[in-house]
Each structure stands twice: as structure tokens, then as C-alpha cells.
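## retry 2 of 3
previous attempt timed out at serialization; input unchanged, resubmitting
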Amino acid sequence: MNGPTTEGRKLSRSFGWLALLGTLLVIAGIIGLIYTGVATLTSMLLFGWLLLVGGLVGLLHAIESRGTSYFWLGVVVAALNIAAGVVVIKHPEGTAEALTMFAALLFLTGGVFRLVGSVVVRGPQMGWTLLQGAFGLLLGLLVLFDWPHSSLYVLGCFFSLALLFDGLGLIAIGIGGRRIVSMVSERLDETVPTADGPITTAEDEQK
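## retry succeeded, writing output
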């Protein structure tokens, strides 16, 4: 009888930690939306350190696999990641400007392709595709016209929104998971036999 109850408590505690992590992410996302400049620099520094650490790990892996056909390819890729990480960490503002320009061009090209594609194909989702294309084109133009000043808040806003929505998703999973575990535990408690025999419910007595 203690087995299912103990496992249920462990699962419930795990889902509770998941909801707590989601809450922290939501708080970080809200703070990032308020201080978008700080969020932009933070995201650039995290990106740089990820590149640097990934390059070092790749370099160690390449050294361990020396003598193979892909040794030099691994070394080159690792060296490029390390160099890119160092540049991003040393120049986060310049990196943010370059990535913001790249994002604006992606919005522009994506919006144009959606607009042209929806007009040419004229599928059942033409109106929705037109709206997406117009929104992407407008967003790209707004970011591009305000560049490089837009680099101070665009990436930070995207980074904060990603944290916010990921946090909300984790909270939903954590709360929903705890409810499911609670329902299953209650059901098991009703059906697990005791020393005197199986527990009977009101429905069983009527039957």
C-alpha cells in the first residue's frame, strides 16, 4: 500500500519542482520585458558562452577521435565555435546589431514569400497567410528602419518572450501533472486491498 503512495508523492514533488522552475522563468521573462537592454546583453553573453563551451567540448571530442577521417573537420568546427564565442563575449553590442539586422531581413523575406505565395497559390488559408506575410513584412520594416537602435530591445524582447512562454508551459505541465497524480493516487487508495479484504465503495455495495 505504501508503494503507490510513495511513488505518487515523488511524482507530485517532481511536478512541483517543474512548476517552480516555470514560475522562475516567467519572472525572468517579465523582468526581461521591462529591461530589454539588459536582456539583450544577457542573451548575447549566454550565446557567446554556449559557443565557447560547445567549441571546447567539440575540440576535446576531436582530440579523442584523432586518427579518424573527420578529425580535422571536428577541429575546424570547434575552432570556429571558440572564435565566434570569444568575439560575441567581447563585443555583445556589435553582435546584437548584426543579429538584429539578420532577424529583420528574415522577417522581410519571410513576409514577402508568404504574401507572394498566398496570392499565387490561393489556397484555403489564403487570408491567414496574407495576414502572416503582412505582419512579418511590417515587423521587418519596423526593425530595419530603427536599426541600430532596435538592436537594444528586439533580441531582448524575443529572449524574454521565449522565457515567459516556456515558463507558462512548464507551470501548466507541473500543475496538470500534480492533478493527474493526485487523481490516480486517490483511485489507487480506493481500490488497494487492506488486511481485512478489499475496500468496498458505495457503488460496490449497491451492486
